[in-house]
Amino acid sequence: MKKDQQLTKSQYFWVVVVMLLICGFFHYYAAQADLLHQAAFPMTRQAVVRIIFLLPVAAAAFGFGLRDGLITLAVATLIMLPRAIFISDQPFDALFETLAVAIVGCILVWMIDVQDREKRLRQRVVEELEAVNAIALTLTRPHHLDAMLNQTLDKISDAIGIPEPAGAILLLDPWGHTLSVRAYRGQYSEFIDGANEIPLAERLCGQTAKSGEVLVMKDALNHPQHVGCLEEGPHTHVCVPLTSKDRLLGVMEFYLPSDHRVDALDRKMFGAIGRQIGVAVENARLCENLRFYAWQITQAQEDERKRIARELHDDTAQQLVALARHLDTLADSEEDLSEAGIERLEKLQRRIEDALQGVRRFSRDLRPSVLDDLGLLPALQGLLSDLEESDIATEMRISGDRQRLAPDVELALFRIVQEALNNVRRHAHASNVIIGVEFLDSQVKVDVHDDGQGFELPGSPGDFAYAGKFGLLGIEERAQLLHGDFRVQSGKGEGTTVSVEVPSEGRLVQEPPGGR
Q: From CA 381, how far away is CA 435, in angstroms rounded?
C-alpha cells in the first residue's frame, strides 16, 4: 500500500499517465483518420498509434520495473481493444495488431527488466568489490589486532547496508576448542558477558567450523545450538568462518533482520571477507609473536646493560677511585720525588680522572640511575646537559599534567630520545635542539627537533634500513613495541623532527599471544 502511495506521488507516474491519455486521444480521434493516407504513409494511423502505445509501456518499465511495466501494458491493451472490437472496419486485423503490440510490449518489458537487473547486479558487484577492497585496506594497515577487527566490523556494516547490525568476531584459542569475543557491534554487547570462553561445539557457528562454509540460518531461534544470541525476535543468523591456509582461526557472526535476503553473491562476499580476516589475524599474531620476541631481546639487552652499568659503577669506577687516592697519597708523601716523577704522577692522575669520568658517563649511558629514581623528565634533562658539552643549545618544553609513566614506557622513550640526540650529535650539524614532551589523557607524545642540515626521507619508513638510517629504524621498532606511532619530518636544510606517541600505561607484549 505504501509503495502504491509513493508511486502516485512520483512525477514519473503522471508522465506515464499523460502519455497514455495522449495515445488514447489520437487512437480514438477520427478527424485525422486520412492524414497518413494523404501523406502516402504505408500504415494506418491506428496501427502507428498502437505501436506508439509501447512508449508509455517502456517508460513505465524503465521507471518502475517489471510489474508496473506489465500493468501499463495491460492498461494500454484495454484502451486499444474497444476500437479494435467495436469501431474498426477490419476488427480481425485490428485485434491482430493489438495482440502483436501486446506481445512486443511483453518482450520489451522483459528486455528492459533483464537490462535493469544486469545493471543493478553490476552496480552491486562494484559496490561489494569496493567494500571488500576497503576491508582489505583496513586489514593491511598496521593496527593492534582488536582495533583492526573493530574497524573491520564497521566496514562490513557499510557493505551489507544495515546500520549497526548486531554481530561479533570471535577467535579460537590456540587449541581450537573455545571462542572469545575480540570485537562486537550492536545488541551483541548485551550478551558479551556470556560470550567469552564458549566451547565451539555448543555454538551454532560450530557447524560453520565443521563445514568451512558460510552458514545462513533464517529460523535460528528454534535451533538447539542457538546459545547466547539475540532472543528479542526472529532474525537471520549468519556465521562466516575465518580461515587461513585451510585452518580455522575464528568465526564472524551477524544477526540480520528476518526479511533481509542473503543470496549467493552475499555468501561469496562474506566468504571472501572471512578469508581476508583470517589471513590478517594470522599475520597479526605473527607480528605479535615477533614483537614479543623483540621485546624479550630488548629486555635482555637492557638487563645486560644494567648489569654492566652496575659493575662499572661498583667495581671499575671504585678501583679507579682507589687508584687515584693511592696516587694522591704517593704525591703527598714525604718521600723524595724528582720533579719529573711528580709530573708523571700528575699526568697519571689526570688520565685516571678522565678514565673515571668516561666510565661514569658510559655507565650512565648504559642505564642512568636517575631514570629509575626520578623518572623520565630528569633523565631527558641529563641527556640535554650532555649535549650542551658539544656546543649545542638545548631546550625542553613540557605540557600537560606531569606524571610518572610505566617503567617500560619511560625506558623506551629514554632510549628513543637518546638515539635521536646521538643522531643530532653525529650527523645533524645543528646549533639548537628542542625536546617536547606532551602528556595527554592516555598517551604521551615526545618530539625531538633540531635545526641541522636535515636529509631526504626514504619512500617509506620500512626503507630506513636500505638508506642506512639504522638509528631511526631502532626508534621505529621501539615505538612499535609500545603499539605507538612514529613519524619523521625532514628535508635538505630544513632540520629534522622525530615524533613518537605511545600509550602512557604501556602495552608491551609480556607473553606470547595465542595462535595456531
A: 9
